Amino acid sequence: MKSSGIIEVALGFLLVLGLAEVWQIQKKIDAQRQALQEERDELVLRSPKLIKRMSLEYAPLVGAMYWTRAVQYYGEKHRLRQLRQGDLELLWPLLDITTTLDPNLIVAYRFGSTFLSDAPPRGAGDPEHAVELLRRGVTANPDYWRLYQDMGNVYYFDKKDYPRAAEAFAEGAKNPRAAIWMKVMAAKIAAEGESLETSYFLWRDIYQTAQEPRIKKNAELHLRLVKVDLDLRELNRLANEYERRAGRRATKLSELVQAGLLSQVPADPDGYLYVLGEGGKAELNLYSPMLEEKLMNK
Amino acid sequence: MKNVWTVAANTFREAVRDRVLYNLVFFALLMMGAAILVGQISIGIEESVIVSLGLTAISVIGLLIAVFIGVGLVSKEMDKRTLYALLAKPVERWEFLLGKYCGLVMTLTVNTAAMAVGLYLALWTVKHALEKSDAWILVAVYLILLKLALIVALALLFSCFTTPFLAILFTAGIYVAGVFAGDLRTMQAVDLSPATMSLLKGVSYLLPNFENFNVMGAVAHGRAVPGALVGQATLYAVVYGAVVLAAASAIFSRRNLK
Amino acid sequence: MRVDAGEVFGFLGPNGAGKTTTIKLLMRLIFPDGGTARILGKSIDDVSMHQEIGYLPEQPYFYDYLTAAELLDYFARFHGLTATDRQTRVQEMLKKVGLETAKKIQLRKYSKGMLQRVGLAQAILHDPQVVILDEPMSGLDPLGRREVRDIILELKKEGRTVLFSTHILSDAEMLCDRVGVIVGGKLRGVGTPGEMVGIKTQGIEILFEVAAGKNLPLLAKATQTGERYRVQMPEEELYGAIEQLQAADARILAITQLKPTLEEFFMNLVEADRAQANAVEVSGK
After folding, report:
1. In what helix (H) or strand (E) does residue C31 lie, and over which residues does it extend?
2. Same domain for C59 and C188?
């Protein structure tokens, strides 16, 4: 009796030991495979139609799976800071499959429109496909007017096609539930094309209303850059005014304050004071991280 | 008709005492739990994933039950010869068949309802509230049940004239074909003659169009299901099912029980 | 072939002769290529006639997830018995076949003999006029067979008609008013058991015990197992042998008639058949 008990305990112990070994070995394997990361970028099945057929009746579920994969793909790629053109090449196929499987997955369209069309290092730099994605989106979800907003943004920011941008905003404005500014923006862009105020407004609306955290973060990034441009433009205008009044170019912003043109020296979104650089032009502070940000995102 | 009910009630009792069914339902409930987990890692579509995964689980498990147990309804009785003593009673063969059918459909209804409750529990765990739009899930579940009832009828039909293994194969095959029936109708192929095209079109109408019962896409995003669709799908299932059961009865009534 | 009301009719034949097939034809489990059959004056197509028939299939198998009581109750419903009727009848039947103590146990735990008894119970549950039993003794131990025999005799006493099939001759001899013999799918003859197997006995066998060392000529022809001896002889020599045994103070245990086995009987039939190619006509009535 006793000996069989001991054997059981011994077997149990060996089992635990064996599993611990397996755990260790798996860790080693994972480390190895990390080194070979490039090989993991594979989308074996590419045809959305085929995948839809293979999903039988369960397409929305499979669509959700591909959506998750798309987000993880983007997240992983984004960790490598230096994104170049072509590094996000699987994003469009993944989103294409996702939206074919589940045409009502709104967040996929919104995510896609942002990160497909935005230039590297933020996105794939592929506004063509972004537009195609959004067209599919509005066909399947005619009620969701924000897709028109996204479309307008893509035309405005990345394709610089202002007539089409205006068209998109106007189309979206037709929806009785659309925000009133859609109509206003349509007219403004049709008339003026690009302007810093418009850009600022568009990015701010996305920042305020987007629920997907990455989209929100992306909008914030753009918003800060546009804010800097707006600030610099205003500062230059004031510097020109100073020159007109004082007959010479100011060398420090404090002079503008003394002249009563500014209440105080303003700071950039990161809190660093603006400066006047060569030729009396307004510039970012040398220490400000915004400088690097501006350089990276041009 | 009383005989039909007697057989149905006994079939239901058999299912209740069959542990396999409990395992399947337990597994489905496990899936619901998994759905909650999966929802956590899917950004922005947590609820949608829970509903999709839940409905998929209900559909797939229901499918397994409908095919495997559906085929076994009659073939098990023929193999084990439990049928012989029964048919010696004053009961018609079609009454027996219909009774078995109703018994399994009742079982499926109970199972599906249990799983639907699990689905709502999963949703509630994540949302801590249920909205009006969540009621559409019940409609989706009802349509899945209609689909399953039709599949049971088909399984029964096949099991009346082939071996259980082939019956399972045929039923599974017609399920897959039926899912694509709609595609078949709208298919554009350049290199097929008009005659072939119309033949394919005809076939597509004769196959059971299971897409009629699939509203997962809409319901996962909280959208409404048109009442007309529900009504028509019900009618379709009833008529198609009746035809299949009638054929099964006719075949079974003339079958020699070795 | 015709079975009269109130008689016990044995359907005899070797395995594979077609007994079960015939019975299944009667029960409409399989369909005939030709010919007609009637039970109680009604065509076998008439399912309502099954109200008056009880049937025990060969090697019965019932729903193993039910208990005996549940099974009988289930079957009783098809006969239109009310709930109270069902309860009484089920109890009666269980008692009759000796399964009262096991009535709450699921059938999957039943032995073959117990299943056979359940089968009998469900066959007579609804008080049928005609009872058709397919190999009711098969797989039973001697006690079980005895019980089945008793039940069949009881049924006969109650005035029912019993048709049963078997390949065991002694059972048929004991129970049947008449028998029908079927070989190779054809009916070979109908008559009383005596008529059918009325072939002269092949002699007598004596089983006896005797103390060692006794002078007994019989021993030369006897086979010995332990303390017992068996010896066979023609019928004429019986009394001479008994005298010998008496003289030797032997203890006679048994005296039996040697009959031809059923196999031999049927072999003869088949050979005679081949010689003549004359089969008895079957007309169902």
Report:
1. none
2. yes
User: CB of C20 within 8 A of CB of C165?
Assistant: yes
In the numeric block, the tokens 């949608």 are attached to: B48
Domain ranges of chain A: 43-222, 229-296
Whether residues C242 and C167 fall in one domain? no
CA angle B36/B32/B211 to nearest 5° reads 110
**What is the SS3 assignment for A291?**
helix
User: Residue B42 burial (CB < 10 Å; 0-12/13-18/19+)?
Assistant: buried
Helical H segments across C35-192, by residue range: 68-78, 83-96, 112-124, 142-157, 169-175
Interface check for B176 against chain A (CB to CB < 8 A): the answer is yes
Hey, is the C-beta of A24 within 8 angstroms of any chain B C-beta? no
End-to-end, the C-alpha distance of chain A in Å comes to 79
- Per this entry, what is the length of chain C? 285
User: Mean pLDDT, to the nearest integer, of A123-142?
Assistant: 92
B252 with B165: CB under 8 angstroms? no
CB contact under 8 A, A61 and B56: yes
Rounded CA separation B149/B25 (Å):
18
- Separation between Cα atoms, residue A160 and residue C187, nearest integer Å: 100
A57 in contact with B at a CB cutoff of 8 Å?
yes
* Domains of chain B, residue spans: 2-253
Q: Nearest 5°: CA angle at C139, between C134 and C141?
A: 125
Q: Cα B19 to chain center, whole Å?
A: 20
C-interface mutation test, from B21, B77, B82, most C Cβ less than 10 A away: B82
Q: Whole-angstrom Cα distance, residue C39 to residue C119?
A: 21
CB atoms within 10 A of CB B11: 21
pLDDT at B184: 82
8 A C-beta contact, residue A167 and residue A151: no
Question: Which of the residues A57, A74, A76 would you substitute to probe the B interface, choosing the one with the greatest number of B C-beta atoms within 10 Å?
Answer: A57
The closest of A87, A84, A93 to A112, measured between CA atoms, is A93
Question: Could you write out the DSSP letters of every residue in C98-131?
Answer: T-GGGTTSBGGG--HHHHHHHHHHHHHTT--SEE
| C190 domain-assigned | yes
ipTM for the complex shown:
0.85
Give the predicted TM-score (pTM) of the model. Answer: 0.81
List beta partners, residue C9. C163, C178
Give the tens place of pLDDT for each residue, B31-47: 778 877 877 766 667 88
Distance CA C139, CA B213 (A): 52
Judge: C47–B90 Cβ closer than 8 Å, yes or no. yes
Averaged pLDDT of chain C? 81
Residue among C23, C25, C29 with most chain B CBs within 10 A, to mutate: C29
pLDDT tens digits, residue range B102-119?
999 999 999 999 889 888
Task: Please give the class, per CATH, of domain A43-222.
Answer: mainly alpha
Domain stop point among C155, C179, C196: C196
Task: Please report which residue ranges of chain C form alpha helices under DSSP H.
Answer: 19-26, 68-78, 83-96, 112-124, 142-157, 169-175, 193-196, 238-247, 262-276
Chains C and B touch (3+ CB pairs under 8 A): yes
Alpha-carbon span C27 to C16, nearest angstrom: 18
pLDDT tier, C198 (very low <50, low <70, confident <90, very high otherwise): low
CA distance A131 to chain B (A): 22
Q: Which residue, C179, C196, C213, sits at the end of a domain?
A: C196
| Total H helices, total E strands in chain C | 9, 12
Q: Is the bond preceding residue A121 a cis peptide, omega within 30 degrees? A: yes
- What is the number of domains present in chain C? 2
Chain position carrying tokens 């399964």: C99
